[in-house]
């Protein structure tokens, strides 16, 4: 195995993490969390989501949050925009990067956004046009890359097809999401063997949930393939509100501890990350779901 010398960590806690929390945070609490994360060395932070507050009420104040952030030249604050209306709202808030999502599972696509995979991608055409016109970068997510709560196992070729279509439409990078965390190292290998036949590894990111405690070993496997971008959430926040049993994202602290132990550079300071972890855990009234954070904070 040849591992990358550097890895870019994409912090998704303020969006993918908090969207699945029962507690809705105030604007100033979210801004404080993102401010603390911005001081750690993390330079890619997903700050919110422009979706219907009817479906994801925790993200209803994303526009206010993003407007309240102090823009830093070295930090990319992004937002999820599932449709044209969401993108228009994101542009109004000043976002310079957005994300769209497709699924490798037809059933998940239907239950999540009430349309087929092909229909969901077709809807993005106008979004990409507007994003390009406004010089906004677009990142892609693919859900259920190793399993679906409705269909079970997912064929790797389905992951490859959706990922390639997103890149062909204009995504600079596609993040492969193990939405319900059922993946194993073998499944990760089988999936990446297929995807990387069609897509350069530099355009692929890993977004693995830790439902069955497999996220780190799956990330280790992906690193061995040369994947050098990892999505994670501070304190192990969140999950997917549409996937029953999905307990949450892999914790940024645990990812960082592993990468530090592998001498892989990230530019992220663990001590400062622990400050952010302690803050959001206190706000939510519980301990971090991160073994590394609990061990280091307990010293």
TrEMBL record:
One of its GO biological process terms is:
L-leucine catabolic process
**Keywords from the named record:** Lyase, Metal-binding
Record's CDD domains? DRE_TIM_HMGL
Q: Which ranges does the record mark as transmembrane?
A: none
Pfam families this protein is in?
HMGL-like (PF00682)
GO molecular function terms here?
Answer: hydroxymethylglutaryl-CoA lyase activity; metal ion binding
Under which pathway is this protein filed? Metabolic intermediate metabolism; (S)-3-hydroxy-3-methylglutaryl-CoA degradation; acetoacetate from (S)-3-hydroxy-3-methylglutaryl-CoA: step 1/1
Q: Has keyword Lyase?
A: yes
Enzyme type, top EC level: lyase
In short, the EC number is 4.1.3.4
- Pyruvate carboxyltransferase domain: residues covered: 7-274
Q: Does the keyword Iron apply?
A: no
Gene3D superfamilies in alphabetical order: Aldolase class I
| Top-level taxonomic group | Bacteria
Q: Which PANTHER family match?
A: HYDROXYMETHYLGLUTARYL-COA LYASE
Membership in a protein family:
Belongs to the HMG-CoA lyase family.
Q: What is this protein called?
A: hydroxymethylglutaryl-CoA lyase
Organism of origin is: Alteromonas macleodii (Pseudoalteromonas macleodii)
């Amino acid at each position: 195995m040849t591992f990358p010398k550097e890895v870019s960590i994409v912090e998704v806690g303020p969006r993918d993490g908090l969207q699945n929390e029962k507690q809705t945070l105030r604007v100033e609490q979210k801004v404080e969390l993102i401010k603390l994360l911005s001081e750690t060395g993390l330079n890619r932070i997903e700050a919110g989501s422009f979706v219907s507050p009817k479906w994801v009420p925790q993200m209803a104040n994303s526009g206010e949050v993003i407007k309240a952030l102090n823009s830093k030249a070295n930090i990319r604050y992004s937002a999820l925009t599932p449709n044209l209306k969401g993108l228009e709202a994101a542009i109004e808030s000043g976002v310079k990067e957005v994300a769209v999502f497709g699924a490798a599972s037809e059933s998940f696509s239907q239950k999540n956004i009430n349309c087929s995979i092909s229909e969901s991608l077709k809807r993005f055409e106008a979004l990409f046009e507007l994003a390009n016109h406004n010089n906004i970068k677009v990142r892609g997510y693919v859900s259920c890359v190793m399993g679906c709560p409705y269909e079970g196992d997912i064929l790797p070729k389905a992951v490859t097809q959706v990922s390639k279509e997103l890149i062909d439409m204009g995504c600079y990078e596609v993040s492969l999401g193990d939405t319900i965390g059922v993946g194993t190292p073998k499944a990760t290998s089988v999936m990446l063997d297929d995807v990387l036949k069609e897509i350069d590894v530099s355009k692929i990111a890993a977004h693995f949930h830790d439902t069955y405690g497999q996220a780190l070993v799956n990330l280790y496997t992906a690193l061995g393939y040369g994947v050098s971008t990892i999505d994670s959430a501070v304190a192990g926040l969140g999950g997917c509100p549409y996937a029953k049993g999905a307990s949450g994202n892999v914790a940024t602290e645990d990812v960082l501890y592993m990468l530090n132990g592998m001498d892989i550079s990230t530019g992220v300071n663990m001590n400062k990350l622990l400050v952010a972890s302690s803050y959001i855990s206190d706000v939510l009234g519980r301990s971090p779901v991160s073994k590394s954070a609990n061990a280091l904070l307990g010293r």
